[in-house]
């Protein structure tokens, strides 16, 4: 009987290992760049309100590095956005996967021409998605498909690279496809947090606390023994580094064991875009909003629907019983299986803490119902399921500022914030907008919609908001040419635009009354026109640009230049 059990266990482990080895085609995709693969960002890395959906490959601070098709395929989608992925390319492959390339400077020549035709047709730079026919752009493995850049919301030149399941759109860690990186460095655990839950105590306190630890040897740490009573959880602030790079990356997996048994495991093999929002439940969100440090919890909330967890026992919550001793181990690993472990001895004691009543003096939120509150000229409306859990929030108006709790509670859905504006003059109603003033030193425009006698916005951020007024027109400045001058040697025409308050909403540029494509680098505030787009007729030309901000303030500039 025992022999049969051992054989069954061996067969299970063998088939699981074999399945994992064959799960992803490791030799199918070649690296998309022919330079050393060093990552500026890893898959599943913790980002603002989402997990990173790909890997960011460094390009040595340069733009224009050629990108090569990692396998045969066809272009299924092209996207041009001002923000987000910027210029992005999607290639479908016969093995059921789609590769994605984002923040590009430009595409391969035939794709670039196709995109420009559509941009001129729509008279717009950020035209969104294009879906070419399957046989329009076909590439062989090793063909150049585009060039790296810094477009969209990128923080510097690099290639954002993804691999997706074509049918499900689930993103998969590119390192599982033999995208090799050099990494012999263990993850770094910066801080350890302990959380007393449901009236529990740790070291005679019911408040979460940072626990100090000391180094035993490389990659191994231990804390002093802590005492606890009741249900507790842990969280760690940690990161990983690769060789030849100083930037901090995310880890691959996080595991917690209690007395040698795994009670929590999470890794970033694959996930879907729809579940990425649950990052705000995966981390200690309130701590992050206060201190800008992300602690990954090793226990989960029941409404956390992330599919990346395995081997959960009691959702990672540890029930500490009186007079019992526990050894808790938290293990952070990178993709190359470099690990760092922190060991926490815990002794169970009697719980002398009297559970305090919740503060119910605010506005009650029933997360399963529609909740609407109004004070003075301000209304907040929370759809059902906006909050993950029932709670009480603060809501007050102070000197025209609407304080809607603090931004320490994560939201599942957007809510609507409305300000009545019937008391404003006609001119003020034109220039009014809603500003986020949670940080009063840096008021921030939020997308504002207007109706008769009111303005409103939809947001997932709690905090402080008020009405502000934008009375100034955008600023326009000629960069590489002057009014009335010859510019025969110029290959481009460049203009700087900016708006200090609500930001640029749209712009339109023409030469000799014909629309021209000006690519907007919003990070530098520079518009660029490529003279190769159109052949100029004659030598004297009139350039005109009209720029509007988000409340409708408009500035027009005209200039004459000479070019054959």
Give me a quick take on this structure.
The chain has 564 residues and is mainly β.
What is the number of helical segments per DSSP (H or I, 4+ residues)? 5
Approximate helicity band: under 10%
Percent of residues in beta strands = 35-45%
Separation, N- and C-terminal Cα atoms? 92 Å
User: Whole-number radius of gyration?
Assistant: 28 Å
Number of strands: 48
Largest sheet features:
12 strands, mixed
Structural class: mainly beta
Q: Name the shape in a single word.
A: globular
Low-confidence parts:
1-21
- Summed over residues and divided by their number, the pLDDT gives a mean of 94
Describe how the helices and strands are arranged.
Layout: H1 2-23, E1 39-41, E2 46-47, E3 50-51, E4 55-58, E5 66-68, E6 73-80, E7 87-92, E8 97-102, E9 104-107, H2 109-122, E10 128-130, E11 138-139, E12 144-148, E13 158-165, E14 171-172, E15 188-202, E16 209-210, E17 213-217, E18 220-223, E19 226-239, E20 253-258, E21 261-267, E22 270-271, H3 279-282, H4 285-291, E23 296-297, E24 309-310, E25 318-320, E26 325-333, E27 339-348, E28 363-365, E29 371-375, E30 378-382, E31 391-393, E32 395-398, E33 401-404, E34 415-420, H5 426-431, E35 432-436, E36 444-445, E37 449-451, E38 454-459, E39 463-469, E40 475-478, E41 485-486, E42 492-498, E43 504-511, E44 514-515, E45 518-521, E46 526-530, E47 540-549, E48 554-562
Parallel strand pairs: 18-27, 19-27, 41-48
Antiparallel strand pairs: 1-4, 2-3, 4-13, 5-12, 6-7, 6-10, 6-11, 7-8, 8-13, 9-12, 13-14, 14-22, 15-16, 15-19, 17-18, 19-23, 19-25, 20-21, 20-26, 21-24, 26-27, 28-31, 29-30, 30-34, 32-33, 33-39, 34-38, 35-36, 35-39, 37-38, 40-42, 42-46, 43-44, 43-47, 45-46, 47-48
